[in-house]
Amino acid sequence: MIRTIVVDDEQLALRHLMKKLQTIETVEVVGSFSNARDVLKGMKTLDFNVAFLDIELPGLSGLDLADLLKEWNKDVFIVFVTAYRDYAVQAFELHSIDYLMKPIMSERLEKTILRIQEQLEKRTTEKTNATLPSKALKIICFKEFAVYHHNTPVKWKTGKVKELFAYFITNHQDPIHRDTIIEALWNDVEYQKAKIQLHTAISYLRKTLDAMGYPDTITFSNGSYVMEIDHYECDVHQFERIFEDHPQLTDANIEMFEDIVQNYNGDYMENNGYEWALVKAHAIRQKISQLLQMMIDFFADQNLLNKKQQYLQLLVSLSPYSESAVQQLMRFYVKTGNRGEAVKVYHDMKELLIEDLGILPDQSTTGLYDSILNG
């Protein structure tokens, strides 16, 4: 939540800015002042993380007030508000996060608020990472399921114990009925024998986790098992958390998502042959495809054509049967004057569809191809 104070000696301008700020759900105005003296008296009793300061104030200027606020709390974000452009250089030398010209337009103010939100999120993430204990357990789920403890591969008693841990990680913190686990991992074994094998695997898994410093992580109640582990690192869980927490791409988080995409070197537990993991693999692949499309649109808006091409190609390689992805890449090549590549993309897809599925491309894709040939 953004908690802000507003300082302006012009009452009409003060009310105007406060009214605009109060219409934004993520903003709470906790104080308003007409001079720096009153701010200095009241700032220690107010909980705020942003200050909107008019530069032309009676007595102490907004620039001087910003200096004092930063000395008091270096984490306070300063937004200068003025009718004079001449102050811009001084304002940014004081490390303000933004500089607004009067009269303030709603669209411009919303950009400022978005910038502040991004910086607050970044600051929160940095503080969290700094205070978390070292994650000794590292779990890789993309392509090949692998587990490392202090960077050393974990030795499993049997392959089934490893698969059981993979199943629990897939359903982390969710109660799973014993029979559901048996159906997933021992569906070809007679039920009573399967129960014994499950209990044996659970025992071995508990001992392995205990030895790594994760005791009492698997509990049993009402016929169901639950595994809960703290302070571990998992590539897929990290991706899902970031994907949910950042529904929009911004300048502040785009590099984080580029790292995620570059680390996606295969489907969820692809090389392990776990049939029960296919549903999760499909869901993750859909999210990656959705993310790639978001990145394509983001770089298109930024007019960064090389980046757009890079992620269009990735999207097609991830979803080679997708008519939409292929059409986007074809149109991109045509727009950038590379008709030959557009034609090649079409033929590559056509050959793949015929060979793998025994079908031809959709009429809309064929129509686009014909229009490219005809100029």
From TrEMBL:
Residues 3-117 form the Response regulatory domain. Keywords: DNA-binding, Phosphoprotein, Transcription, Transcription regulation, Two-component regulatory system. InterPro entries: AfsR-DnrI-RedD_regulator, BTAD, CheY-like_superfamily, OmpR/PhoB-type_DNA-bd, Sig_transdc_resp-reg_C-effctor, Sig_transdc_resp-reg_receiver, TPR-like_helical_dom_sf, WH-like_DNA-bd_sf. One of its GO terms (molecular function) is DNA binding. It comes from the Bacteria. The modification 4-aspartylphosphate is found at residue 54. SUPFAM superfamilies: C-terminal effector domain of the bipartite response regulators (SSF46894), CheY-like (SSF52172), TPR-like (SSF48452). Gene3D superfamilies: 3.40.50.2300, Tetratricopeptide repeat domain, Winged helix-like DNA-binding domain superfamily/Winged helix DNA-binding domain. The keyword Phosphoprotein applies. One of its GO terms (biological process) is phosphorelay signal transduction system. It holds the Pfam family BTAD. Belongs to the AfsR/DnrI/RedD regulatory family. This is Response regulatory domain-containing protein. It comes from Sporosarcina luteola.
